[in-house]
Amino acid sequence: MAFVDKVVAGAILPIVPKFVARRFAKRYVPGEKLEDALAVVKKLNSLGMCATVDVLGEFSTSLNEAVSAAEEYNRALEAIADENLDSNISLKPTHLGLKINREKCYELIKELCEKARQADNFVRIDMEDSACTQDTLDMYVRLRKEYDNVGTVVQSYLRRTLDDVRKLLSSNTNLRICKGVYVEPRRIAYKDMSIINRNYMAIVELMLFNGGYAGIATHDEVLVWEVLDLIERLNPSAHKFEFQMLWGVDNELRDILLETGHKLRIYIPYGENWYAYSTRRLKENPRLAGFVFKAALKR
Ligand code: FDA
Asked: Which of 87, 97, 123, 148 has a CA-to-CA distance to 56 between 20 and 30 Å?
């Protein structure tokens, strides 16, 4: 199957015209405008789910671009508050200038944390590739000293993650746990899916045992089953964890999770950068291209 995934990513994707790609992307990206994302948030809220909105973009190449991204997040926080929606925001440090000016990036995210705090809202700092891991964790730890409405993400495919989580646990941490989507060298990341999954569960267990807040972000039903089993055994407070899924991925599992009564948050990306962002991600990660292709065939 890896071969098929590579063919989809390498040979088919580059010849798909943009209007066809838009039809595929519409399943995962509701639109280019904030209003498109908020319409989905409203619908999900009415069905009992909360959301997190992400302004698509990464690796800003100028400070202007980073500042525009922050302004868009500002608008999102204001609209969420004005419309009384249940959604926080998820942002990527490189979109806010991490690779241009680390301190400016920190300041921009700090301003968003402040704005979110005033509205009783929350900022999630997504985790990007391994060249960003340490800077992102450092920024998170620094922000967390002042703001308890900020969290970040850890990736169970990274060999370093279990150690990172042990260190972060001392400060009442708030982490989304995912497998990791970037393609990393073997010396940095596990390649064997059974190890990635065991590591995933070790991290969740560590978090739930030690009272951290865990955002359990996965569509892998085996992991979902294992986490539900762990919750049953540990009986953590409902205020200490939530499930998270990407908008448009496995709605059946989404509904099954909703029925358990546990908190469920859906990640909703939007923005004008949808084409560049989606194609870059798909080309980099043939496995992802394979998922999208298979999901399209199922329709
Ligand atoms: P797995 O990869 O085994 O997928 C399980 C099944 O889900 C697949 O068999 C497939 O059917 C389906 N599936 C998964 N992804 C799909 C997709 N995109 N399209 C169609 N079907 C799909 N990563 C990261 O590095 N940094 C981050 O900050 C985040 N943030 C994040 C937030 C949220 C809410 C989620 C759910 C995920 C992320 N991720 C992420 C992505 C994550 O690391 C991972 O790449 C994907 O979730 C896929 O991993 P699963 O755990 O779902 O398992």
From this structure: 148
289 Cα: distance to centroid of ligand 1 (angstroms): 12
User: Domain residues for 12?
Assistant: 1-29+282-294
Q: Verify that 91 and 234 share a domain, yes or no.
A: yes
Instruction: Based on the fold, state whether residues 181 and 151 are members of the same structural domain.
Output: yes
Per-residue three-class SS string for 15-63: HCCHHHHHHHHCCCCCCCCHHHHHHHHHHHHHCCCEEEEEECCCCCCCH
Q: For position 108, what pLDDT does the model report? A: 98
Digit-coded pLDDT (tens) for 103-132: 999 999 999 999 999 999 999 999 999 999
pTM of the model: 0.93
CA 64 – ligand 1 centroid, Å: 31
Q: What's the CA gap between 41 and 72, in Å, rounded?
A: 17
Q: Are 245 and 217 in contact (CB under 8 A)?
A: yes
d(CA 183, CA 286): 9
Nearest CA to ligand 1 atom 21: 291
- Side-chain half-sphere of 112: how many Cα atoms within 13 Å? 32
Whether 16 and 81 map to the same domain: the answer is: no
Question: What is the whole-number distance in angstroms between the Cα of residue 262 and the centre of ligand 1?
Answer: 19
| CB distance 179 to ligand 1 below 6 Å | yes
